[in-house]
Amino acid sequence: MITDVSDKSIPELVSLEGRVAVITGGARGIGLAIARRLAEAGASVLIGDLDKEGAEDAAESLRALGRPAIGVELDAHDGDSVSRLADRAILELGTIDIWVNNAGVYPSVPLLEMTEAQWDNVLDLNLKGSFLGAQQAAKRMISAGHGGVIVNMASTASFRAPGPGVAHYVSSKFGVRGLTQALAVELGPHGIRVLAVAPTYIDTPGTAAGREALAAAGRGDLIEQMVATKPLGRMGVPDDVARVVLFCASDLATLMTGSTLPVDAGDLAL
Ligand SMILES: NC(=O)c1ccc[n+]([C@@H]2O[C@H](COP(=O)([O-])OP(=O)(O)OC[C@H]3O[C@@H](n4cnc5c(N)ncnc54)[C@H](O)[C@@H]3O)[C@@H](O)[C@H]2O)c1
């Protein structure tokens, strides 16, 4: 099922022309950047997000670039909602070739104050949401018989804890890395590749809130502090991650599955 593409040119290898990609949490931040790059490479795109209006606006911005794109409401916690997203892709775009489990949250709370509900909220979205998305995508890819690619959003926190206050987040992202391996083993015989990307700290609307809170508490500019510690000496931006997701989803990566690729400015080398 996974063919030898040695004879293809580089533009052919990068092209996603004729493929359909679904991105969860694609209304803003890393997910939106992924939707943009996959669409630019030729994919038709379905964006699902808790923020319905944001998803619709994101899709409209892709249609303005001439790509078929739809934005719909999604709660990635919820199996029925995820199943409806997958159905919508089949109904309106014809198939699913690429599924990106990007939706995630990263609240911070000290271990001794963490409630069961806070733990569940993070695990349910970041880890169970990735399982639900992968399962719905794989069902449809298997019945279509054409294989596909699932990309999960891990984190450098999938490899090591960045600091205190994120036991739930670190556990969820270690889980995403494990899930990626397990799915790769199980889905490989169906021609479905499963990869994860593991970003370092990326400048997004989600992380902006945390930075503003630190600055308001007089604890300085987090970006400046972080840049100083990065081997590559600059912050990540969403497109840094999106280009690696494009690589994973494309035929450049046909023999890759099960890995979690750091997009880490060298963090994990320290
Ligand atoms: N930004 C970083 O520094 C960083 C680093 C490593 C990993 N990540 C991971 O990247 C992913 C995206 O992060 P971001 O910084 O772009 O986040 P963000 O908060 O800027 O955007 C997240 C998007 O997901 C949507 N979303 C939230 N809950 C949802 C749900 N239940 N169902 C559907 N959509 C939902 C939000 O509405 C939003 O549009 C997350 O999985 C995060 O853990 C981020």
Strand neighbour order, sheet with most strands: 3-2-1-4-5-6-7
Please tell me the total number of domains: 2
Look at the structure and give the mean pLDDT.
96
Treating each run of at least 4 consecutive H or I residues as one helix, how many helices? 9
Spatial shape = globular
Question: What is the highest CATH level, the class of the largest domain?
Answer: Alpha Beta
Brief synopsis:
47% of the residues lie in helices and 14% in strands.
Give a description of the structure.
- By secondary structure, the chain is of the alpha/beta class.
- The chain has two domains: 10-202 and 237-262, 3-Layer(aba) Sandwich (Rossmann fold); 205-236, no CATH class.
- Helix content is 47%, strand content 14%.
- The chain is built from nine helices and seven strands, in the order αβαβαβαβαβαβαααβ.
- The model has no long low-confidence stretch (mean pLDDT 96).
- The structure holds nicotinamide-adenine-dinucleotide.
- Nicotinamide-adenine-dinucleotide (NAD) binds next to helix 2 and helix 7.
Output the keywords.
270 residues; Rossmann fold; 7-stranded parallel β-sheet; 47% helix; globular; binds nicotinamide-adenine-dinucleotide
Give me the secondary-structure topology:
Layout: H1 10-14, E1 20-24, H2 29-40, E2 44-49, H3 52-63, E3 69-73, H4 79-93, E4 98-101, H5 116-144, E5 148-153, H6 167-187, E6 192-199, H7 205-216, H8 222-229, H9 238-249, E7 260-263
Parallel strand pairs: 1-2, 1-4, 2-3, 4-5, 5-6, 6-7
Nicotinamide-adenine-dinucleotide (NAD) is lined by residues 24-25, 27-31, 49-51, 54, 74-77, 102-106, 125, 153, 155, 199, 201-202, 204-207.
